[in-house]
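Minutes, methods subgroup
Present: GH (chair), OT, SY

1. OT presented the first of two proteins processed in the latest run. Sequence and structure tokens recorded below as shown on screen.
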Amino acid sequence: MEEDIIVYSGRISSIRRNVDKQYIWFDIGKLEFYTDKDGIVKSNSSFFSARINRCYENKINIHLNDKVTIRGIPKGYVDKRGFRQNYIHVLEYNGISLNIDLEEKFGIDTDDTPLWDGKRCESILATKEEQDEMDQIIKSITGDANE
């Protein structure tokens, strides 16, 4: 089944990094003009909410008032109060393609530990023997092996 795609351009009017652990949410707004029934030109603000996976935060710099064009999948959900919320799940940001496969591999565990392909990304300290071995390798490279 083919998914619907939406393309939207405007300026970033708000950025929310505290909605959930996996996504950064932002609004893209623009001022649209129309002529009313009396021939008077009026303006109307419109906006779309969008979300982008946090794994792209270092690849894409998102700043307030930036002019952007996004391409993505229209999505929606019903919030806690029973209201329908619509947003765009971003696939492309200012011409930069975002890889959904990468996004599906990346995640955040309940204690904020990064996940990669479902596995926790935690550092494991080297044993004393491993540290001694690394010290010897470093000394052989730097010429300090005789010390």
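2. SY then presented the second protein from the same run.
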Amino acid sequence: MYKIVFICSMLLGSFSSFAQYESSSSSSSENKMEGTFPELKSEQTNQYKFSAGVASGVSSPTGDATSSMEYGLVLGFQPIALIGAGVEANTTRLDTANDIRQTNVLLRSTYNVGGDVPVLRSSFLGVGLGPVFVSNRVRWAGAPLVGFDIPLSSKSHDFISLGLEAKYLFVTNTDVPDLFASTLALKYWF
């Protein structure tokens, strides 16, 4: 049954990939077809955006530690509409026998998907790198990031966004557990 559903969905999907707008002799912008990724326009200085926010969620470490609350701060800069950079600082308590607190400070870079699809235009993919502080030790970590920030108003500056982010933190040493974190972020863009 699953094979039949898969084949039907592949066939229907292949027909839609060849759909085109009706071509006409006039070159109006309403008939213009755009791709999934919009053009990069770095010459527009009004696209500069800074953001500051708070994040709170759940982190699930690997190994014998249990899930616990994670919270932190997020600062960001968006030089153009598709590219973002920033720093995030998160802390969580690992519920082990020693009751250890883990703090992550990650430099992050993100690519905003964009486009015209409602949820996808607010989505981002990225990577974060930085130190992990656990008790008296410092370890290094990297994390792939995925998430979205949906604006709560239609203004281009001075607005608040609500988003969700997921990351998996790979720590360099085995004495500190890797962790999966899912956080809800409230950001102010100025």
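Chair's summary of item 2: The first strand starts at residue 49 and ends at 61.
Next meeting: continue with the remaining queue.
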